Amino acid sequence: MEWPKELTVYKNHHMDSTTWDGFKFRDDDIIVGSWAKSGTTLTQQLIGQLISHGDPNFVSNDESPWWDLRFLPAEAREAVEKQTHRRFLKTHLPATALPYDPRVKYICCYRDGRDVAWSMHHHHASVTDLWYQLVNDTPGRVGPAMPPCNPDQRQYFLDWLRGDGQPWWPFFSHVQSWWNVRHLPNVMLVHFNALITDLPSEARRIAAFLGISVPEDKWPVILEHCSKDWMRANPDKIGSMFGAFWQGGIKDFIFKGTNGRWADTLTAEDCAEYEAKAKQELGADCATWLGGKGPLDAKAYPAK
């Protein structure tokens, strides 16, 4: 099992993979990734709390910017170079477009595609005019502009499914790219279901993977600062961009944090179409894992 050697250039209204060109990794860097709306912010918050041993004033989202976001301010990139704590950066790139360094730890989060699309619909419906301006009008955009959100949730999902992630970016190949490298010793796949059903255990698993030793008396405060209620009540301690880009601030960005909200809207035929597509694109093992129907530790599935 190897990381892809020939990386693809990945550009769209949000991302530009060439922002990683020439990036100088440090020995203990951490990369936190996902397709989107799959636990990235919670994982960033958890890692920030692990690194800072529960410091409530450690603003994880600002300290770990989305590096391949094409309109990330230059000062945010410069600040990363000056950081003295252990660095952890966010990406939404597939593994096929992200540089690899064996010294770096890579964590990528996923969840069932129906839950992803449902969360993304609320995310899209709640953005501000400034968000559209940055996404669509910042020079250098590749591909079509980001359209307004379709208010019909079911149709939004079907368009997302049949267009492979549209109007965002490809979903199934993204999952597949990280699934293909899951057995590398410095790669961990995190399932959203594990984060929301047993955060204490998953937090310890992530800490062990990252080699972070946490004093036992620090665990309660770390977990408190990673709860949805605490994060929603303390937006200034999570990140500085929520109020500008989402109409309801962090309450729109971190919304329900639950699964299965699609169950009363999608038909049996819709679900069958999704499940058949997932199995066709990902294979049985990956589709089972993504759907949360088997072991949530991706390394429990054999490499092929």
TrEMBL record:
The keyword DNA repair does not apply. Its EC number is 2.8.2.-. Belongs to the sulfotransferase 1 family. SUPFAM superfamilies: P-loop containing nucleoside triphosphate hydrolases. Keywords: Transferase. Residues 27-281 form the Sulfotransferase domain. The keyword Transferase applies. It is an enzyme of class 2 (transferase). One of its GO terms (molecular function) is sulfotransferase activity. Signal peptide: none annotated. Gene3D superfamilies: P-loop containing nucleotide triphosphate hydrolases. It comes from the Eukaryota. This is Sulfotransferase.
